[in-house]
Each structure stands twice: as structure tokens, then as C-alpha cells.
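Quick one, C-alpha cells below:
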């Protein structure tokens, strides 16, 4: 790399397709154990969809919700349920934030962190958001990601 551009670029670490598939498998296993058909989406560190699965019996509406939860977690680097805490007492932010396309402020989306780096996001939809959170937390634990 030439000296003039040496400090103008950076390397990016992101989730691999194999990593996304392992997360999907762990999520399906956790959802089956909970008796909850879900949709699960995984985004890479640039918030681009990397993998998706809709379990048999998961409502069609869960497709977009799971993808939006995963997108939000990857784009903000924060669990979606924490975003509600950030905006709930700030009326201008609360009223405006929810009109941002694809942003979700209820549980079920988590950032994926590996060795301290944001590598993507995962989102689950199929039950009450508290059930979605429990399914994701079990999948993260099974795959070694932090929740």
C-alpha cells in the first residue's frame, strides 16, 4: 500500500456464511425446544442479509420482523430491546426514531460480537418478544457468541 493511502482504509471483520448457518441451526434447535416456530435472520457486519430461515408454522409476518430485528442489531451494534430504553423518555427521539425504516425497538434482535468486534446481527420473530429473546440467547450461548 502506498504511503498516501496507508491510513485511509481499514480491514473489516464479518460473520462468515458458515457462522450464519451455525447460528440458524442453533436458533432452530432452541425454538423447537421452546415449542415455538420462528423466522430467523442473520446479517453481516455491514447490515446486509447473510442467511434466513422460516420454520414450518411460523407466521408469514415474522419474515420481515426477524429481518428487521437482525438489521437493527447489526446496524446499531445493540440489542433491539435496549433501543427502547434509549428512546422511551426522549419524546422527539421516540416519535422520530420509530419512523426510520427497518428499525425495531422491541426484543429479539442481538448484535453478534466476536473477540470484541461487531461481526453481524441476528433476529428472531415468532412469539412474544420475550420468547424471541430467550431463543436468541440460547442460540448465542450454543454458538459461543456473547449476548
Amino acid at each position: 500500500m502506498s504511503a498516501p493511502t496507508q491510513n485511509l482504509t481499514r480491514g473489516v471483520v464479518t460473520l462468515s456464511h458458515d457462522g450464519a448457518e451455525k447460528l440458524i441451526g442453533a436458533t432452530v434447535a432452541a425454538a423447537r425446544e421452546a415449542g415455538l416456530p420462528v423466522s430467523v435472520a442473520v446479517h453481516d457486519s455491514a447490515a446486509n442479509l447473510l442467511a434466513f430461515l422460516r420454520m414450518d408454522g411460523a407466521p408469514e409476518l415474522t419474515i420481515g420482523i426477524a429481518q428487521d430485528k437482525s438489521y437493527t442489531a447489526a446496524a446499531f451494534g445493540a440489542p433491539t430491546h435496549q433501543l427502547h430504553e434509549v428512546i422511551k423518555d426522549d419524546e422527539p427521539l421516540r416519535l422520530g426514531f420509530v419512523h426510520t425504516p427497518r428499525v425495531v425497538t422491541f426484543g429479539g434482535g442481538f448484535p453478534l460480537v466476536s473477540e470484541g468486534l461487531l461481526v453481524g446481527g441476528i433476529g428472531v420473530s415468532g412469539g412474544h418478544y420475550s420468547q424471541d429473546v430467550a431463543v436468541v440467547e440460547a442460540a448465542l450461548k450454543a454458538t459461543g457468541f456473547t449476548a
